[in-house]
Amino acid sequence: MTAAAVAGPIKSESSRLSYVPALDGLRAVAILGVLVFHALPRKLTGGFTGVDVFFVLSGFLITTVILRDLRGGKFSMREFYLRRIQRLVPNAVLMVLGTLALYVFVLLPSQAVEVARHGVWTIFNLSNVYIYRKAGGYWGPLAAYFPLLHTWSLAVEEQFYLVFPAILLFFSRPGYLLKAVLALLAGSLALCVFGSYTHQGITFYMLPTRAWEPLVGAVFAIYLDRRRVVSSFLGWAGLAAIVVGFFLIDKNAAFPGVIALVPTGGALAVLMSVSEGSLSGPGWLLSRPILVMIGKLSYSIYLWHWPLIVIAREYADLVDQSRESWTLVGAAAGVVLSVIAYFAIEQPLRRHGLRILACGFLVCVVVCFVLASWHPVADPLRMFDRPTFLGEAYSVTPWHAIELSDWTKFSDVLLSAEPKIPPKLWTKGGVIHDWGGGKPRVVVMGSSHALMYSPLIDDICKRLGVSVAFFAASATPVFFPTPVGPKFRTVAEAQSFDAARRKWLREWRPDAVLLIDRWDRHFERPGQFESELRGMARELSLYTKHVIVFAQVPALRVGEQENLREYVTWYFRKNGVLPRITEDLGEGLRKSSIAAIDSVARDFPRVQVLRVDEPFYNPDGSVRYSAGRKFLYVDDDHLSDAGTELVREMCTRAITMGVPR
Prior knowledge:
The protein has helices at 21-39, 50-71, 77-106, 109-123, 127-134, 151-170, 177-198, 200-205, 207-210, 212-224, 232-248, 261-274, 282-286, 289-319, 323-346, 348-351, 354-372, 401-406, 448-464, 491-508, 528-540, 564-575, 587-603, 641-644, 648-658; strands at 388-389, 414-415, 431-433, 442-446, 468-472, 512-516, 546-550, 607-610, 626-627, 630-631. It is mainly α.
């Protein structure tokens, strides 16, 4: 995490450093922001920036410790890293083991496998790399289901600790150090600002684009080593900046980028006010006993609160209870466990217990590797046929069957053979099947939901003797412009995809364009979905006679990471009946999307909605996820091939009407 990882009196690092209670108070402000954001994200949209405050504090404290030991001739790289290990590892190892235990004994077995894989990367301080590869963006739909998501910042901090002491040693000659650190800061900040608009995911998680934040604290530590700075006004302004950022910054702010200067600048301003131990102004406020105590607990709170929140949410999904209520239960449980871990593990092992620590670390490694290689059977009772999902074969971007099958939710799904996709296939017209000769008369556009229907649509077009083209990729919204994401990682690629789609539509003039996406992802602000759809309809009316918009099928309340078939059989074994699974909280948005499509269709006669969602509602309002031995879903929102077969007749009629023969 951050400076919370350097929690406790500074004097424990060096006898020449005095304890500044206000720094613990600043940690408290930061951890409270993070905690409230994770428990109530809509109430404190920018609480996640507490991590940026921690980064600045870490850079300041570590640089101060190393510089004073260097000048006193007492610095030892070995001792530095031993202190880091003793401070950080015991509680972290316990957290990983505790999280795994809860997943094994409380949740579904396959969920523990994914956590164990992440745990391996976590304990070796590479969690940020794993999260970027597996979860994508910090605000993406998958990230909320990673109980070790928060350890990305621990990894960044440890990677910083690994290289920064050597930099301080190399540039320790007077007159060089400040210039060198300022140059590194400027380079990292420039890379961060650029990357926030072009490669936001990797920019958010990786050290090169985050190093400037601890370097801000480091620069001040170097400056303070020669000058004294105390300013109450500056401190109040810094606190105000941090708190304002908590409320006003959100996921739409191209974060970290320039906007990250608000929390980091605020943290720097507070440091300049209180670092000398001033007890006036903000120093007095931040030195209040309750804030100091929270600050000392901040590392432990950071470690424990998020896993418990995720576990509580996933448990709520399994037992069909309120996620909001269980989120608060999880947050409270995380805080309680953090206090226990602080006094029972973190404090006793901080100065002693290297052998215990080594044993605990080894046990954690072994447990993670064993669980990561476990292959629990999703349907031990063999209640259902194995579901298939062959849609990825129609993607215009590369995908890997091994990576998909590695996901526990797809571990029992039969996937299509991995094709050899040419680079930038979209520039060649996408995936084209020439069933009728001539130019494609049907074009399919959209995300993984379009891929979901692609085998069915392809088969219908083949039977009708109609050529069809597919412009679809997972995690890629259908609307123009295509955002940077997992499949189009640069602005240039995203723009190339849009240009190709427009080019081929203009050349082909197809009879029908099918738009298929997860529509409940397009409601970030009021009216957004209808506005985007109107813009799309207006543009497509220049190229085609019919625009067929597929309604979104209901998404199940079972979380996005769970193996659905495993959950159903798990529930059956416990209760003797199949679970009644209702829709998730996005059902209202999906209903709104249908109304919006109807509204657009009234103004654009070429637009029609295809209600492929209707066959998946039971009379009692629950979701129809199975039919006899056929399992109709492969996860919470994607149909299996057996599921799409339920709408074959409906799709055939729509395509036949849109493509006159």
